[in-house]
Amino acid sequence: MSIITKMILKADDEVRYLTPGELEQIEIFIKSSDRRIQLAQALTQSHERIVKQAAQELFKNRPRLVAVGGNAHGKEMTATCLRDMDYYLRLISYSIIVGSNAPIKEIGIVGVRQMYKSLGTPVESVAESVRKMKGIAIALLSAEEALEVSYYFDYVIAALE
């Protein structure tokens, strides 16, 4: 949910108009939309590279994942791992666009730890894969952009740990 939607719902719950301060926050949010879209585009355009490179680093650091009996052993299981990594990167891009962690929280994090545990997937490896994607993604951005994007990666990582 965007900051605009939150403010409108809050004002409506309180049966009032938006305050000058709220309107100013909405104006700032709207003015920053080009930047948020550019950040999401940078991740979207590089998503294959980010996921592939992060997976290579992950499997290098955790070779047991791709070894016989590992959670990413074989083409099908490796593809599933890459799909999950891409999924988290996509959620992060959605959150950047709306300027809120709501898409991550509402679409993709609830129950994730329990699901991975029930599947026997080491949650710490999933968190590490997101850390790897973060490192690769922020290397493509300016320092200021990296700071903004890091928040969303860190949110996913914290939810997985």
Structure characterization notes:
The chain is mainly α and 161 residues long. It folds into two domains: 1-31, no CATH class; 33-160, Orthogonal Bundle (Globin-like). Helices cover 79% and strands 0% of the residues. The protein is built from nine helices and no strands. It is elongated and about 60 Å long. The relative contact order is 0.13.
> From the alpha-carbon coordinates, what is the Rg to the nearest angstrom?
18 Å
Tally of domains: 2
| CA-based shape | elongated
CATH architecture of the largest domain: Orthogonal Bundle
CATH level 4 superfamily of the largest domain: Phycocyanins
Portion of residues in beta strands equals under 5%
Q: Count all strands and give the number.
A: 0
By helix and strand content, what is the structural category?
A: mainly alpha
Top-tier CATH class of the largest domain: Mainly Alpha
**Total count of helical runs of at least 4 residues:** 9
How far apart the termini lie comes to 24 Å
Extract low-pLDDT stretches.
none
Report the average pLDDT across residues: 89
Query: What string, H for helix and E for strand, traces the elements in order?
Result: HHHHHHHHH
Topology:
Layout: H1 3-13, H2 20-31, H3 33-45, H4 47-61, H5 74-98, H6 102-109, H7 112-119, H8 123-139, H9 143-160
Helix pairs in contact: 3-5, 4-5, 4-8, 5-6, 5-8, 5-9, 8-9
Key phrases:
single chain, 161 residues, Globin-like, elongated, 2 domains, mainly alpha
Compose a concise summary of this entry.
The protein is built from nine helices and no strands. It is mostly helical and 161 residues long.
